[in-house]
Amino acid sequence: MSESFTIAYRFRGPETSGNGGYTAEAPVVLGRMAAVVPRPIPVGAGGVAVGWPLGRDGRKLHSGTALFAADGTLLGYARQTWIVLG
Asked: What is the CATH code for 9-84?
């Protein structure tokens, strides 16, 4: 799948952050997040962050995320509820 789209400037957060979000229909804001990080993650450690949708309930979007070390070790995981605005 090779689709692309541009997020309107008004929906973007600061370039050095990942705050806020966007869906194909409207901007979203974080409603709740619960994370599990079993041990400290070293500053500057490389890794891979992944995210996936878990479902939708009206204006609520549910997602999961995980952070893995470069060697594939799971470093932490979380679940989020996002609220669609508009």
From this structure: 3.10.129.10
